Amino acid sequence: MSSRREFLKKTGLATIGVAATAAACQTENKKHISQTTTRPLAISTWKNGMQANEAGWKVLNSGGRALDAVEQGVKVVEADPNDMSVGYGGRPDRDGIVTLDACIMDETGNAGSVCALENIKHPISVARRVMEKTPHVMLAGAGALQFAKEEGFVEENILTDKAREQWLEWRKTSEYKPLINIENHDTIGMLALDQKGDISGACTTSGLAYKMHGRVGDSPIIGAGMYCDNEIGGAVATGMGELVMKTLGSFLVVELMNQGLSPQQAVEEAIGRIVKKIPGYQDFQIGYLAINKAGEVGAYSLHKGFNYALYANDNNQLIDSDYYLK
Ligand code: ASP
Question: In this model, does residue 29 exceed pLDDT 50?
Protein backbone atom coordinates (compact mmCIF):
# COMPACT_ATOMS: atom_id res chain seq x y z
CA MET A 1 0.00 0.00 0.00
CA SER A 2 1.37 3.43 -0.85
CA SER A 3 2.36 5.59 2.09
CA ARG A 4 -0.34 8.13 1.14
CA ARG A 5 -3.02 5.46 1.21
CA GLU A 6 -1.72 4.15 4.54
CA PHE A 7 -1.90 7.68 5.92
CA LEU A 8 -5.47 8.07 4.67
CA LYS A 9 -6.46 4.79 6.22
CA LYS A 10 -4.88 5.61 9.58
CA THR A 11 -6.40 9.06 9.83
CA GLY A 12 -9.77 8.22 8.34
CA LEU A 13 -9.33 11.07 5.90
CA ALA A 14 -10.15 8.85 2.97
CA THR A 15 -13.67 8.45 4.33
CA ILE A 16 -13.94 12.16 5.00
CA GLY A 17 -12.93 12.87 1.43
CA VAL A 18 -15.57 10.52 0.04
CA ALA A 19 -18.26 11.83 2.38
CA ALA A 20 -17.35 15.37 1.49
CA THR A 21 -17.66 14.72 -2.20
CA ALA A 22 -20.98 12.97 -1.75
CA ALA A 23 -22.34 15.78 0.42
CA ALA A 24 -21.10 18.38 -1.98
CA CYS A 25 -22.78 16.65 -4.89
CA GLN A 26 -26.21 16.61 -3.29
CA THR A 27 -26.78 20.23 -4.20
CA GLU A 28 -26.84 21.75 -7.65
CA ASN A 29 -23.90 20.90 -9.81
CA LYS A 30 -22.97 24.25 -11.17
CA LYS A 31 -21.69 25.47 -7.80
CA HIS A 32 -19.11 22.73 -7.71
CA ILE A 33 -17.34 23.63 -10.88
CA SER A 34 -14.43 25.71 -9.70
CA GLN A 35 -13.66 28.67 -11.89
CA THR A 36 -10.53 28.04 -13.87
CA THR A 37 -8.21 30.90 -14.60
CA THR A 38 -4.76 31.22 -16.04
CA ARG A 39 -1.55 32.12 -14.23
CA PRO A 40 -0.91 34.54 -12.62
CA LEU A 41 -3.92 35.18 -10.42
CA ALA A 42 -4.77 37.04 -7.25
CA ILE A 43 -7.85 36.54 -5.11
CA SER A 44 -8.81 38.58 -2.05
CA THR A 45 -11.66 38.77 0.41
CA TRP A 46 -14.34 41.46 0.29
CA LYS A 47 -14.66 44.59 -1.81
CA ASN A 48 -11.39 46.02 -0.56
CA GLY A 49 -9.78 43.05 -2.20
CA MET A 50 -10.13 44.99 -5.46
CA GLN A 51 -7.46 47.48 -4.43
CA ALA A 52 -5.31 44.75 -2.91
CA ASN A 53 -5.47 42.82 -6.18
CA GLU A 54 -4.50 45.91 -8.19
CA ALA A 55 -1.30 46.28 -6.17
CA GLY A 56 -0.63 42.55 -6.19
CA TRP A 57 -1.19 42.33 -9.93
CA LYS A 58 1.59 44.86 -10.59
CA VAL A 59 4.00 42.43 -8.93
CA LEU A 60 2.56 39.33 -10.58
CA ASN A 61 2.31 40.81 -14.04
CA SER A 62 5.94 41.83 -14.06
CA GLY A 63 6.99 38.28 -13.18
CA GLY A 64 7.32 38.91 -9.45
CA ARG A 65 6.90 36.53 -6.56
CA ALA A 66 3.48 35.60 -5.17
CA LEU A 67 4.83 36.43 -1.70
CA ASP A 68 5.59 40.03 -2.72
CA ALA A 69 2.21 40.29 -4.43
CA VAL A 70 0.25 39.35 -1.33
CA GLU A 71 2.32 41.57 0.94
CA GLN A 72 2.04 44.59 -1.38
CA GLY A 73 -1.64 43.88 -1.92
CA VAL A 74 -2.79 43.72 1.68
CA LYS A 75 -0.59 46.69 2.65
CA VAL A 76 -2.83 48.94 0.56
CA VAL A 77 -5.80 47.95 2.71
CA GLU A 78 -3.79 48.20 5.95
CA ALA A 79 -2.98 51.81 5.08
CA ASP A 80 -6.57 52.71 4.17
CA PRO A 81 -8.34 54.49 7.06
CA ASN A 82 -11.71 53.82 5.39
CA ASP A 83 -11.33 50.11 5.98
CA MET A 84 -12.30 49.93 9.62
CA SER A 85 -11.25 46.37 10.28
CA VAL A 86 -7.72 46.31 8.97
CA GLY A 87 -4.58 48.20 10.06
CA TYR A 88 -4.73 52.00 10.24
CA GLY A 89 -8.29 53.11 10.98
CA GLY A 90 -9.28 49.72 12.39
CA ARG A 91 -11.90 49.64 15.13
CA PRO A 92 -10.48 49.22 18.62
CA ASP A 93 -11.22 46.61 21.26
CA ARG A 94 -13.63 47.42 24.10
CA ASP A 95 -10.86 49.27 25.93
CA GLY A 96 -10.30 51.58 22.98
CA ILE A 97 -7.05 49.95 21.85
CA VAL A 98 -6.48 48.84 18.25
CA THR A 99 -4.77 45.45 18.22
CA LEU A 100 -3.68 43.87 14.97
CA ASP A 101 -3.32 40.26 13.82
CA ALA A 102 -1.58 39.16 10.61
CA CYS A 103 0.09 36.17 8.99
CA ILE A 104 1.93 35.32 5.81
CA MET A 105 3.17 32.13 4.14
CA ASP A 106 5.52 31.63 1.21
CA GLU A 107 5.98 28.95 -1.41
CA THR A 108 8.51 27.03 0.68
CA GLY A 109 6.01 26.53 3.49
CA ASN A 110 7.71 29.15 5.63
CA ALA A 111 5.34 31.15 7.80
CA GLY A 112 5.32 34.23 10.01
CA SER A 113 2.72 35.93 12.14
CA VAL A 114 2.02 38.60 14.71
CA CYS A 115 -0.93 38.93 17.03
CA ALA A 116 -2.25 41.60 19.38
CA LEU A 117 0.27 44.03 17.89
CA GLU A 118 -0.31 47.69 18.74
CA ASN A 119 0.74 50.97 17.09
CA ILE A 120 2.15 49.56 13.86
CA LYS A 121 0.52 50.34 10.53
CA HIS A 122 1.73 47.31 8.59
CA PRO A 123 1.50 44.17 10.69
CA ILE A 124 1.81 42.03 7.54
CA SER A 125 5.34 43.30 6.97
CA VAL A 126 6.25 42.57 10.60
CA ALA A 127 4.86 39.05 10.09
CA ARG A 128 7.07 38.69 7.04
CA ARG A 129 10.13 39.74 9.06
CA VAL A 130 9.21 37.21 11.75
CA MET A 131 9.15 34.60 8.98
CA GLU A 132 12.39 35.68 7.37
CA LYS A 133 14.49 36.87 10.27
CA THR A 134 13.60 34.80 13.31
CA PRO A 135 13.54 31.09 14.14
CA HIS A 136 9.89 31.51 15.21
CA VAL A 137 6.52 31.61 13.52
CA MET A 138 4.53 33.90 15.80
CA LEU A 139 5.24 36.88 18.04
CA ALA A 140 2.56 38.34 20.31
CA GLY A 141 1.77 41.69 21.91
CA ALA A 142 4.66 43.53 23.51
CA GLY A 143 7.23 41.11 22.10
CA ALA A 144 5.91 41.64 18.59
CA LEU A 145 6.08 45.40 19.04
CA GLN A 146 9.62 45.19 20.42
CA PHE A 147 10.70 43.14 17.41
CA ALA A 148 8.95 45.51 14.99
CA LYS A 149 10.79 48.49 16.47
CA GLU A 150 14.12 46.65 16.32
CA GLU A 151 13.37 46.08 12.64
CA GLY A 152 12.85 49.80 12.07
CA PHE A 153 9.05 49.97 12.07
CA VAL A 154 7.83 53.25 13.52
CA GLU A 155 5.26 53.32 16.32
CA GLU A 156 2.30 55.51 15.43
CA ASN A 157 -1.24 56.12 16.53
CA ILE A 158 -3.46 53.98 14.32
CA LEU A 159 -6.75 54.84 16.06
CA THR A 160 -8.41 57.39 13.79
CA ASP A 161 -10.85 60.03 15.07
CA LYS A 162 -13.68 58.26 13.25
CA ALA A 163 -12.92 54.91 14.89
CA ARG A 164 -12.55 56.59 18.28
CA GLU A 165 -15.87 58.40 17.96
CA GLN A 166 -17.66 55.19 16.99
CA TRP A 167 -16.09 53.42 19.95
CA LEU A 168 -17.22 56.18 22.32
CA GLU A 169 -20.73 55.83 20.92
CA TRP A 170 -20.57 52.04 21.38
CA ARG A 171 -19.47 52.49 25.00
CA LYS A 172 -22.80 54.10 25.82
CA THR A 173 -24.38 50.65 25.70
CA SER A 174 -21.27 48.45 25.50
CA GLU A 175 -23.42 45.83 23.87
CA TYR A 176 -21.23 43.17 22.34
CA LYS A 177 -22.93 41.50 19.46
CA PRO A 178 -21.00 40.29 16.41
CA LEU A 179 -22.97 41.34 13.34
CA ILE A 180 -23.15 39.49 10.09
CA ASN A 181 -21.62 41.21 7.06
CA ILE A 182 -21.46 44.61 8.67
CA GLU A 183 -18.26 46.56 8.12
CA ASN A 184 -16.62 44.88 11.08
CA HIS A 185 -15.98 41.89 8.79
CA ASP A 186 -13.59 43.04 6.16
CA THR A 187 -10.37 41.43 7.17
CA ILE A 188 -8.25 41.17 4.08
CA GLY A 189 -7.14 37.68 3.13
CA MET A 190 -5.28 37.29 -0.14
CA LEU A 191 -3.86 34.40 -2.15
CA ALA A 192 -1.68 34.64 -5.25
CA LEU A 193 -0.36 32.25 -7.88
CA ASP A 194 2.59 33.74 -9.73
CA GLN A 195 3.87 33.17 -13.26
CA LYS A 196 6.25 30.47 -12.01
CA GLY A 197 3.31 28.64 -10.44
CA ASP A 198 4.21 29.41 -6.83
CA ILE A 199 1.52 30.12 -4.25
CA SER A 200 1.62 32.45 -1.23
CA GLY A 201 -0.97 33.92 1.09
CA ALA A 202 -1.49 36.75 3.57
CA CYS A 203 -4.18 37.69 6.04
CA THR A 204 -4.40 40.87 8.14
CA THR A 205 -7.03 42.39 10.43
CA SER A 206 -7.81 44.49 13.47
CA GLY A 207 -10.15 41.64 14.38
CA LEU A 208 -13.64 41.93 15.72
CA ALA A 209 -14.67 45.41 16.73
CA TYR A 210 -14.97 45.85 20.51
CA LYS A 211 -13.54 42.42 21.25
CA MET A 212 -12.12 41.74 24.71
CA HIS A 213 -8.63 43.17 25.15
CA GLY A 214 -6.19 40.38 24.34
CA ARG A 215 -8.60 38.47 22.12
CA VAL A 216 -6.82 36.97 19.13
CA GLY A 217 -8.82 35.66 16.18
CA ASP A 218 -8.15 33.22 13.39
CA SER A 219 -6.36 35.65 11.09
CA PRO A 220 -2.81 35.28 12.48
CA ILE A 221 -3.15 31.55 13.14
CA ILE A 222 -1.41 29.52 10.45
CA GLY A 223 -3.93 26.93 9.29
CA ALA A 224 -6.93 28.84 10.62
CA GLY A 225 -7.02 32.28 8.94
CA MET A 226 -4.72 31.23 6.09
CA TYR A 227 -2.76 28.25 4.87
CA CYS A 228 -0.72 27.46 1.77
CA ASP A 229 0.96 24.33 0.53
CA ASN A 230 2.81 24.98 -2.69
CA GLU A 231 2.19 21.43 -3.92
CA ILE A 232 -1.56 21.77 -3.48
CA GLY A 233 -3.02 25.26 -3.08
CA GLY A 234 -4.00 27.87 -0.54
CA ALA A 235 -6.98 29.05 1.50
CA VAL A 236 -8.00 32.11 3.50
CA ALA A 237 -10.85 32.75 5.89
CA THR A 238 -12.85 35.74 7.04
CA GLY A 239 -15.71 36.21 9.45
CA MET A 240 -16.16 35.10 13.04
CA GLY A 241 -12.68 33.82 13.79
CA GLU A 242 -13.70 31.58 16.66
CA LEU A 243 -15.60 29.26 14.31
CA VAL A 244 -12.66 29.08 11.94
CA MET A 245 -10.24 28.36 14.78
CA LYS A 246 -12.39 25.56 16.17
CA THR A 247 -12.32 23.82 12.80
CA LEU A 248 -8.82 24.89 11.65
CA GLY A 249 -10.57 26.01 8.50
CA SER A 250 -7.84 27.02 6.07
CA PHE A 251 -5.74 23.94 6.74
CA LEU A 252 -8.87 21.84 6.35
CA VAL A 253 -9.58 23.38 2.94
CA VAL A 254 -6.04 22.74 1.71
CA GLU A 255 -6.05 19.21 3.09
CA LEU A 256 -9.38 18.49 1.38
CA MET A 257 -7.85 19.68 -1.89
CA ASN A 258 -4.98 17.30 -1.15
CA GLN A 259 -7.57 14.52 -0.95
CA GLY A 260 -8.70 15.42 -4.45
CA LEU A 261 -11.51 17.90 -3.92
CA SER A 262 -11.67 20.96 -6.14
CA PRO A 263 -11.25 24.35 -4.41
CA GLN A 264 -15.02 24.87 -4.59
CA GLN A 265 -15.81 21.47 -3.09
CA ALA A 266 -13.19 22.03 -0.39
CA VAL A 267 -14.56 25.40 0.76
CA GLU A 268 -18.10 24.02 0.79
CA GLU A 269 -16.99 21.07 2.90
CA ALA A 270 -15.18 23.40 5.34
CA ILE A 271 -18.38 25.42 5.77
CA GLY A 272 -20.21 22.11 6.14
CA ARG A 273 -17.88 21.19 8.98
CA ILE A 274 -18.83 24.37 10.85
CA VAL A 275 -22.51 23.65 10.26
CA LYS A 276 -22.08 20.14 11.61
CA LYS A 277 -19.88 20.92 14.60
CA ILE A 278 -20.80 24.36 15.89
CA PRO A 279 -24.22 24.98 17.42
CA GLY A 280 -25.50 28.49 16.75
CA TYR A 281 -23.43 28.84 13.57
CA GLN A 282 -26.40 30.65 11.98
CA ASP A 283 -25.59 33.73 14.04
CA PHE A 284 -22.26 34.28 12.35
CA GLN A 285 -20.76 34.85 8.94
CA ILE A 286 -17.78 32.87 7.66
CA GLY A 287 -16.28 33.13 4.18
CA TYR A 288 -13.56 31.00 2.61
CA LEU A 289 -11.52 31.45 -0.56
CA ALA A 290 -9.29 28.78 -2.07
CA ILE A 291 -7.01 28.31 -5.06
CA ASN A 292 -5.11 25.31 -6.34
CA LYS A 293 -1.98 24.88 -8.42
CA ALA A 294 -4.04 24.61 -11.61
CA GLY A 295 -5.44 28.10 -11.06
CA GLU A 296 -8.91 26.89 -10.09
CA VAL A 297 -10.62 28.98 -7.43
CA GLY A 298 -13.38 28.37 -4.91
CA ALA A 299 -15.44 30.66 -2.68
CA TYR A 300 -18.21 29.90 -0.22
CA SER A 301 -19.77 31.44 2.86
CA LEU A 302 -22.35 30.66 5.49
CA HIS A 303 -24.60 33.62 4.72
CA LYS A 304 -25.36 35.70 1.69
CA GLY A 305 -23.27 38.83 1.41
CA PHE A 306 -19.68 37.60 1.18
CA ASN A 307 -17.88 38.87 -1.88
CA TYR A 308 -14.34 38.63 -3.18
CA ALA A 309 -12.08 40.11 -5.80
CA LEU A 310 -10.55 37.89 -8.46
CA TYR A 311 -7.82 39.23 -10.72
CA ALA A 312 -7.11 36.86 -13.56
CA ASN A 313 -6.76 37.06 -17.32
CA ASP A 314 -5.95 40.78 -16.96
CA ASN A 315 -9.31 41.44 -15.39
CA ASN A 316 -10.10 42.41 -11.80
CA GLN A 317 -13.68 41.59 -10.80
CA LEU A 318 -15.78 41.71 -7.67
CA ILE A 319 -17.80 38.51 -7.39
CA ASP A 320 -20.60 37.50 -5.03
CA SER A 321 -19.84 34.23 -3.31
CA ASP A 322 -22.26 31.35 -3.24
CA TYR A 323 -23.47 30.55 0.28
CA TYR A 324 -24.98 27.86 2.48
CA LEU A 325 -27.99 29.42 4.26
CA LYS A 326 -30.47 29.95 1.45
N1 ASP B 1 -11.68 36.75 11.13
C2 ASP B 1 -11.51 38.00 11.80
C3 ASP B 1 -11.42 37.75 13.28
O4 ASP B 1 -12.15 36.92 13.79
C5 ASP B 1 -12.57 38.99 11.57
C6 ASP B 1 -13.08 39.16 10.17
O7 ASP B 1 -12.73 38.45 9.23
O8 ASP B 1 -13.85 40.08 9.98
O9 ASP B 1 -10.67 38.44 13.92
Answer: no
